[in-house]
Amino acid sequence: MKVLAIDQGTTGTKAFTYDSDGNFNQVFSAEVTQYFPEQGWVEHDAEELLAHIGMALEKAGQVDAIGIANQGETLLAWDATTGIPIYRAIVWQDDRSKDFCEALKGQGAEALTKSKAGLPLDPYFSASKFRWLLDHVPEARPLLKQGRLHMGTSDAFFLERLTGEFVTDVTTASRTSLMSLDTLQWDAELCDLFGVPMQCLPEIRATTGPFGKGITASMVDQQAALFGHGCMKPGDGKITFGTGAFALALAGPNRPQQDQSGLLPTVAWKIGQEPAVYALDGGVYNAASAVNWAKSLKLFADYAEINTFEAAPAIARKLAFVPALSGLACPHWDRNATGLWIGLGLDTTARDMMQAVLEGVALRACEVVEAMSRHGRSGAAISIDGGLSKNPYFGQFLSNALGRMVTVASTADLTGLGVARMAMVGAGAAHLPPLPAPSQLYSPSDPLPAALHSRFGIAVLRAKGWKAF
Fold first, then answer.
1. Is residue 132 within 8 Å of residue 91, measured between CB atoms?
2. CB 408 within 8 A of CB 442
3. Residue 262: pLDDT above 90?
4. Tell me, what DSSP letter sits at residue 309?
5. Which residues are CB-neighbours of 388 under 8 A, at least 6 positions away?
6. Distance CA 105, CA 397 (A)
7. What's the whole-number mean pLDDT along residues 6-26?
8. At what angle do helices 46-60 and 154-163 cross, to 10 degrees?
9. Once rounded to an integer, what is the mean pLDDT over residues 132-137?
10. How far is it, in rounded angstroms, from Cα 398 to Cα 443?
């Protein structure tokens, strides 16, 4: 069996072929144009994303099945008759609905979203931005009156244009704040809360469809990466260091109970008629995006320059960076937080600042893993992937900061590998090829003292709420 895996991500679209012998080869790659029309707004051209998928399909040639991983919370609206979007896709990083979410919080509505969807009131999730489209895009309400308005996450747009089916999968629906984690269907109370007409939303199906036209898997990129890591039993976890850092740990067939940890219960996947498998999710909004931002400031020119540092850890020298360039997610959930360097002096160099950026991303990931540990959902080792996983300084510092083994996946493209393997499952494969061994292991050779974690915690406190002052 040979399948095509398409990873339609925030910064790029990549595609891979994968066969029954385990051969995993990239066949397509393209960068995604980013639009920043106002501060805090992030948009994509949905037609550009769809064109990437079309080019990937053409490059792959004949395959037996197709899997598509999507960005998760990124959303759009389109005319059901023509299939044409009425506005650019609004990306998960976008915080234009922050005030709307705060107003709902003021009314005490967060208890409902947490109890039903498992999610806090935050513009990260799609629901509040569906409402923004209804309130601010002139074509939206006339199309709604005519019964021609379709709204959905990016996967629903892709699937309708590719197959004619207006559908989404359960993992992606779980990221909207409109789906009940208990029924795995759109919830009337949640739709009423956000003012999103349920008839505009796609049908929710299993991760393995059916979707039509040979597409046998559709899922959120982070859940695909979890599957690609081979995480199959409760407690197995991974962190993907892509645009953001996203930790997921499997919880099993029962929905995790809501607590004060800041972690989010979510759906890992649902295969055919089998019960859904749940997971705990913890996100850090900025990881590689912080590194790339620093590169754009010319703090370094080539990624090889930041593979090693001769100096002691920046945090040990009282220099810290809080990567809250898009706010703070788990466990803080503070959209008013901002990025922060603290501890700068006249002797601080660009390399010092970059060292602090890498450490700041790792230390934020530690906060999430610590929350999972308190929840009893964290193992003795943790597997990582994504572009930052290739950086040796980052991998060793992360292991020291976590105080546990860190294994680096054999490929940085675990999302592609995961959705490829899920596509094989959806196509009826009885067995999957064995996963390749990790490419790198890091042991905590010099564990970071608790006092330095506390020092970073103080820096985080100083970054919180800054936009509200």
1. no
2. yes
3. no
4. -
5. 241, 242, 245, 287, 288, 291, 358, 361, 394
6. 37
7. 95
8. 50
9. 98
10. 10
Angle of helix 450-463 relative to helix 350-374, nearest 10 degrees, comes to 100
Encode pLDDT of 111-124 as tens digits. 999 999 999 999 99
- Cβ proximity of 368 and 225 under 8 Å: no
- Put the strands of the sheet holding 24-31 in their side by side order: 24-31, 12-19, 2-8, 65-70, 215-220
Q: CB–CB of 11/412 below 8 Å?
A: no
- Single out the residue of 430, 426, 429, 421 nearest to residue 271, CA to CA: 426
Q: What is the pLDDT of residues 54-111, one digit of tens each?
A: 999 999 999 999 999 999 999 999 999 999 999 999 999 999 999 999 999 999 999 9
The answer to whether the CB of 235 falls within 8 A of the CB of 249 is yes
d(CA 421, CA 427): 10
Q: Quickly tell me which residue has 């789906």 as its tokens.
A: 179
Q: What share of the chain is helix, strand, coil (3-state, %, to 5)?
A: 35, 25, 40
pLDDT tens-place string over residues 294-351: 999 999 999 999 999 999 999 999 999 999 999 999 899 898 999 999 999 999 999 9
Could you tell me which residues are beta bridge partners of residue 440? 408
Residue whose structure tokens are 């919830």:
187
* C-alpha triplet 408, 442, 414: angle, nearest 5°: 5
Q: Residue 365 has which token pair?
A: 């990931």
Tokens of 141: 């309400």
Q: Contact 261/371 with Cβ under 8 angstroms?
A: yes
- Letter for the amino acid at 257? Q
The per-residue b/e assignment along 163-180, b for 16 or more CB within 10 angstroms, e otherwise, is: bebbbbbbbbbbbbbbbb
Place of tokens 């796609």: 202
Tell me the longest C-alpha to C-alpha distance in the chain.
Answer: 65
Q: What is the DSSP string of 125-172?
A: SSHHHHHHHHHH-TTHHHHHHTT-EEEEEHHHHHHHHHHS--EEEHHH
- Rounded CA-CA distance 42/90 in Å is 6
Chain center to CA of 11: 12
Quote the CA–CA distance of 443 and 407 in Å, as a whole number. 9
Q: Is the pLDDT of residue 463 over 70?
A: yes
Q: What DSSP string runs through 6-17?
A: EEE-SSEEEEEE
The verdict on whether omega for the bond into residue 210 sits within 30 degrees of 0, i.e. cis, is: yes
